[in-house]
Amino acid sequence: SDPIIVFAADKASAGSFNYPLYRIFADPMNSAGLVIDTSMFHGFKFEVLDSKKNQRVILKSPEELHELVGLLGSSTRYTVSRIWQAKDHLLCAVTSTTKLSLIAGKYVGKDDPVAIVRAQHGLPAVGEILVPFLHTYFVEGWMRGSHWGPLMPVALKDSKCTVFDGPPRMVALGFQVCDGHIADLKDGKPMVADLFDDPAFELARREATETAAMIRRMGEFQPARLSQEAMEYTTLPQILEKLKDRFKPS
Q1: What is the pLDDT of residue 103?
Q2: Which residues contact residue 204 at a Cβ distance below 8 angstroms, ignoring those fewer than 6 apart?
Q3: What sign for the dihedral angle of Cα 96, 123, 157, 206?
Q4: 94 burial type by CB count under 10 A (0-12 exposed, 13-18 middle, 19+ buried)
Q5: Are 99 and 232 in contact (CB under 8 A)?
Q6: Who's near 181: CB < 8 A, 6+ residues apart?
Q7: Which residue numbers in the chain have pLDDT < 50?
Q8: Selection from 80, 78, 75, 143 nearest residue 109 by Cα
């Protein structure tokens, strides 16, 4: 058997998976297998994309852990694109990394990223893959793709965004692959587990709601709004162009 989890986010950016993927494949405080399972001792290789320069670099954990965190912590620019087992190059995870604004040169909606993660012998278990979502964390996106918002792990039935077009939401669907095919039920429909449809994630949902209410008090002031660099594909450049002749030396 080959368990596979598909994560799909709404009102979030391509870097939204940096934090959980780091926790899953590089943090022994999250994934006990990194300490207990000898088949995971060789670590994992991360392919990191520089979305500004359209370049890629491969870093290996645990040897290059500090460099990895240094890049992934700048999630507005650097994103995990693929992860492999270091010992045999088995592909473990892939994400969508395209930023729509970098293609269009203007704000055309957020990227709504997805990730596919494998779980089997020599890889993190399904339970370890879900641990990072016990708590909320901040992602880029939310209203008009221009704000930081707390990620809310939800069941499919609760995936509709509402408040300020959010909060940013993510679903996790579990599949079982057998002999190259997705396992199905007797009626031929695929077996799908709605993994976030569970009381264990109520804490994260409550945290996301409370954090969303707190940060929205700041309105359009940073850090609720993204940095000026991240706003270059919105209307902010038009405002600066309109006022450029009115700026005087101080």
Answers
A1: 53
A2: 133, 134, 135, 136, 152, 153
A3: negative
A4: middle
A5: no
A6: none
A7: none
A8: 143
Rounded (10°) CA dihedral 227, 159, 48, 83: 160
Tokens 């994103």 correspond to what residue? Answer: 79
- Report how far residue 10's alpha carbon sits from residue 230's, in angstroms, rounded to the nearest whole number: 18
Residue with tokens 């669907």: 173
- Cα dihedral 58→60→21→189 (10° resolution): 80
The residue to which tokens 């596979």 are assigned: 4
Q: Which two tokens stand for residue 78?
A: 């650097």
pTM exceeding the 0.90 threshold for the entire prediction: yes
What is the rounded CA–CA span in Å between residue 167 and residue 179? 39
pLDDT at 102: 55
Distance CA 58, CA 66 (A): 13
Instruction: Take residue 146 and report the two structure tokens written for it.
Output: 């221009």
